[in-house]
Please model this.
Amino acid sequence: MKENLKKDYEAKIQKMSRELRELELLLRSQELINSTIHLDTVLDYLMQLAVKITDCEAASALLLEGDRLYFASASGVKTSQIKGV
Model:
């Protein structure tokens, strides 16, 4: 019984720690968005944030300009190859 309670407690602590880290990252992103007018800077930061929060290898943001869809930002291994395509 005590062992189960301890496991549940540790699992909840880990979950809360992860959620706190995510909230801190989101707060930082909000501060950056409010402090800069450079879209590239904001998008690059948000892609890095997305990778951290989702624990994935890469992220990208596509923008639509007229009838052209292009990668405005990317993070991960092939960032330089993807950006602008």
